[in-house]
Amino acid sequence: MSTHYLRHLGIALSLTAALQAQNPGDKAPGRYIVELKAGASVPAVAARHAVLPDVEFSDVFKGFAGEIPVARVGALRQDPNVASVVEDRITGMHAKPAKPGNGGGGGTISRSAEVLPAGVARVGAIPGVIAQTGSGVGVAVVDTGVDFNHPDLPLGSKSFKAIVSRNRLQLSEGATVGQDDNGHGTHVGGTIAARQDGFDVIGVAPGATLYAVKVLDSAGSGYDSTVLAGLDWVAKNAATVVPAIKVVNMSLGRPGTLGDNASYRNAVKKLRDLGITVVVSAGNDQSKEVSGVVPATYPEVIAVASTTAKDGTDDIGWFIGADTASYFSTDGAYNASTGIGVSISAPGEDQENIVSGYIQSVGILSTRLGGGTTRMSGTSMSSPHTAGVVALLYEQAGGAIDPESVRAKIMSSASNVGVAPFNSPTSSYTFDGVREGVLDALGATGTTIP
Questions:
Q1: Is 356 in the active site?
Q2: Which of 216, 265, 267, 399 is in Cβ range 3.0-4.6 Å of 222 for a Cys bridge?
Q3: Domains in the chain: how many in total?
């Protein structure tokens, strides 16, 4: 269970974590992403510099990625057909705590009576009240994969996998190659679109179709290049799969800056230009703002921060209420001029309980790898609530709505604008100056409760 000290106790937070050889944001030694200029040929450039690409990008931009000897990088950068050469970097999922499934207990390992999760209820995605269900809308889950064997998850006929093994990126496409082997993507997918079938949980958009785009491995780790391969697959297939992909959810990221990988941003821009809305998690480092997180910093995405879905419990005479900023959430005020910042907050945990002076996070209930349900906390869980509402908007518009109009609807219809998120009581929390409100499916779709 996730814990955090309260500010009123005046005690500094101390966290320990196992040392890892590579962490999100680290450069991947010897791996590079190469973007070419218009008209250039990938085989010709690769042959000229005696490099063997792992993957060729064709739809989000023209280029390739792979292991390149350092001695050849300088010449590549000087090649008149090359637009950029950047080092590949490690990225990872945005779930807290790090151990999958440990978000406050609860859940089942087999099918059980259907539950309306607290997060889905908080954003107002109430079954039978909103006319839209996401029917006819495809949502690409760019993540650890999705469990094809979970009966509560509506999956499309195509899936994709991009994983680096022994420093080489390996790609595959097929009906079930995007099978989850971690649990994170399965949980995310359930929040977006778990079926209303009387079992387990119901998602925000239970009529939508999920496409598993596996770019993170069994440990929840990947590379910029695996993410780019996944986005390239989405761009290539979005209009030809049925239903068409209109929404991408990316509950992942790494420390970084707006300009540290222009190719990554170009890929997101391409999806935006295709009319696809990209929803991403803000991050789980409360010391950062989204301007320091990739891809959350990109103006072309909808970056989502985390709040509590309902009131917590206490043992010291007061409690942390619903719509409070989660103690772990990255934030950052949205700047309309630059397009950078948190567009909306949404539930990333059910509640925060106070136990012996510590905050304990109770995670969002959603689908579990292997069947049943489980709980997880993090901005990884905030993003899919928003992606689900975006799917509702695409259905409502008959698919004819652009990503910036989607953002405008999400932001203008939020509940408690100017009031929420409420300040977290933790010592590490710093108010970013804007209370953007909490995601509201009823407001976004213009639904009124009789």
A1: no
A2: 216
A3: 2
